[in-house]
Amino acid sequence: MRLLLVEDEADFAQALARRLSREGFAVDIVHDGEAALELADVHAYDLVLLDLNLPKIDGLDVCRALRAKRPELFIIMLTARDGLQDKIAGLEEGADDYIVKPFHFAELLARIHAVLRRDPRARTPVLTVGTLRLDPLRRLAWRGDERLSLTKKEFAILEYLMRRPGEVVTQEDLLEHVWDASANPFTASVRVHIHALRRKLGDSADAPRYIETVPGGYRLRTDESESRR
C-alpha cells in the first residue's frame, strides 16, 4: 500500500514515515497543501494522512479537492485541532477518519487498517489464491503449510498480486503501489524482486505455477492445475 503523508513538521513527518515503512507501507512526504495536490495528481495513492494546519493551501481545502478528484481515495486527518466543530468540518469535507495529535502510533496504525478494510478487496482478513495464503495484518504468508520468509517488498508485491488474481499487473502498477516516489521508473528493481519472490515460491518464469510474465506485466494464476502456457 502506498501512502501520502502531508505534514508541515518535517521531523515529525520523517519519524512517522519511518515507522510506517517498517510496517510495510511505501510513504511519500510533502509539507504543504499545494505539493500534496500536485503529487496526488501524479501517483495513485491508496490513502492520504493529512494535517489540517498546512502552508499555501489549508488541509480542509486539500481534502475537499482530493475528494472531488478521487472519490475512492481514503483520507485520514491528523491534527492538533480537537474541537467538535473541527472534527465535524473535517468529516463533512470528506475525511474517512480524524485523529488528534498527540496520538499513539498503534492507534494510528489500527485506524489505517480499519479504513483500508473498507476497500472491498481488503475485507477478507486472510487472502487465499490456490495454495497461497497471506495475512496482511500479521504480515504472514504461506505456500500450503509452509511459512514463507519474505522481505517487505516481496510481501507487498505478493499482497498486491493476490488482491488482483488473474489480472494483468504492470510494472508501473507495482511501482505506484509498492515503491515510493524515489523509485526510478527505469530501474530493474521490480523484475529483480519478482525473480526473488518466484524463487521463494518455488516458481519459475519458464513454467510458472504462480506468477506468469504476460504481455504488459505479470499475472497471478488462479488455477495452479492449468496446463502450462
From TrEMBL:
Entries under InterPro entries matching the protein: CheY-like_superfamily, OmpR/PhoB-type_DNA-bd, Sig_transdc_resp-reg_receiver, WalR-like, WH-like_DNA-bd_sf
Q: Entry's CDD domains?
A: trans_reg_C
Q: Annotated Gene Ontology MF terms?
A: phosphorelay response regulator activity; transcription cis-regulatory region binding
Q: Which residues form the OmpR/PhoB-type domain?
A: 124-222
Pfam families for this protein: Response_reg (PF00072), Trans_reg_C (PF00486)
What name appears for this protein in its UniProt entry? Two-component system response regulator
> Which keywords label this protein?
DNA-binding, Phosphoprotein, Transcription, Transcription regulation, Two-component regulatory system
* Start and end residues of each Response regulatory domain: 2-116
- Any idea which residues bear 4-aspartylphosphate here? D51
Signal sequence span per UniProt? none
Cellular compartments per GO CC: cytosol; protein-DNA complex
Q: Which SUPFAM superfamilies has this protein been placed in?
A: CheY-like (SSF52172)
The membrane spanning regions, by residue number, are none
Residue ranges for the DNA-binding region feature of this UniProt entry: 124-222
- Gene3D superfamilies per record: 3.40.50.2300, 6.10.250.690, Winged helix-like DNA-binding domain superfamily/Winged helix DNA-binding domain
Its GO biological process annotations read: regulation of DNA-templated transcription
